[in-house]
């Protein structure tokens, strides 16, 4: 039995009709070098051999009576790999568009909360000898960084790596009864409060001191979840339908643009997102010029790799002023870089009083109350601000499962009531994967928004080319003058 941490418990309790809390992990596999070709049964056996590397995939969640403490993970005595591993064919022609339409449909179905909270759809019929592993994993299990680390545990750096030996005779632990769950909660709850309160108290003191210094120096604070967030098309009560798409660019091209402007890749991503969202708002009759959006940014709190068991969602959230109100792309980039620095300073100063510590002592009844308020406000209020964006660096080198090469890896979070659109960048082996998940009513055609992102990045590439050309011309004139 293992107690969920506060963030994982919060996401578990957020599960409700129309607001599923699972994430997407998509592996695009190149099967062209498999001796004898692709074979599903052989793949299934390979997964069975690796199950001991993913112990949480045999866990199911149990709630504590009276909601006294966070739920616990326990072994599922009825675990059945063939329930969680499913085989499906992509409709013709098996290209990216058809694949994303299939993933959109697969994602929309809720997971069975009485079983381990994951499913893997093995998608055949794709172009170029590809097979996709579309895995739905509840966000309570792990976060993006944790998923990246888990990925490196079950894949290899070489095609020649030995197949893991299956651990036979797995015996599930006895499922605790209600009295046992209650007794453990009564023991664990005081420990949780004793551990969390000093951090929160110190964090709140840090925040007060920070705000005082900010007032004295005239510096600005980042927006908060409960700022007077402006009206936007993204703050809605989500329905059951989902739209998922992803687009792949060269990571080196993105790095070159960010380096050319002297900003980080994340700054460039925020600016491109602001440009794409600005155009989206204009097409929906919203005026982006009235001010920035409040963007929720997940922040990893995972320990160093050698201390990390990869279990649980170890993220917090801070907020950033996304400059959709700036029409000039270069001004948007400067504003994005500034907003990123403001948020980073705030993260350091507010250590201890962030979301991850606060939800550690938040009972389920308060989470239900928050849900009620969000519904009462029809999605115009909540912890997500106006939109959620994230940038997660994945493995830099190609990975393998046996002779299959992991050709690309795509990771996507979730949307929720009050958060109708989530945009995530996941990089893998030199690829910059832009992933978009949205409520289907809000965004029926995800490629529309991809097009706006393409235009935004192309705009920055053009500005950089002009900047380099101008600098070269000035250097040439100076040389002639000498």
Structure description:
This protein is of the alpha+beta class. The protein has a 6-stranded mixed sheet, sandwiched between helices. β6 and β7 form a beta hairpin. It is globular, with a radius of gyration of 24 Å.
Topology, pairings included?
Elements lengths: L1 E2 L2 H8 L8 E9 L9 H11 L8 E4 L9 E4 L5 H4 E5 L6 H13 L9 E7 L5 E9 L5 H11 L23 H40 L24 E9 H11 L3 H19 L9 E8 L14 E8 L6 H21 L5 H4 L5 H13 L10 E7 L5 E3 L2 E9 L8 E8 L2 E9 L6 H36 L1
Parallel strand pairs: 5-6, 9-11, 11-14
Antiparallel strand pairs: 1-4, 2-7, 2-13, 3-4, 6-7, 8-15, 9-10, 12-13, 14-15
Largest sheet: 6 strands, mixed
- Rg value: 24 Å
CATH second-level architecture of the largest domain: 2-Layer Sandwich
What fold name goes in the CATH topology slot of the largest domain? Chloramphenicol Acetyltransferase
Count of individual helical segments: 12
Question: Which spans have pLDDT < 50 for at least 5 consecutive residues?
Answer: none
Using DSSP, what is the number of strands?
15
Strand order of the largest sheet: 5-6-7-2-13-12
Could you say which structural class the secondary elements and strand pairing correspond to? alpha+beta
Strand content: 15-25%
SSE order in H/E notation?
Answer: EHEHEEHEHEEHHEHHEEHHHEEEEEH
Output the CATH homologous superfamily of the largest domain. Answer: Nonribosomal peptide synthetase, condensation domain
Q: Could you say which overall geometry the principal axes of the C-alpha atoms support?
A: globular
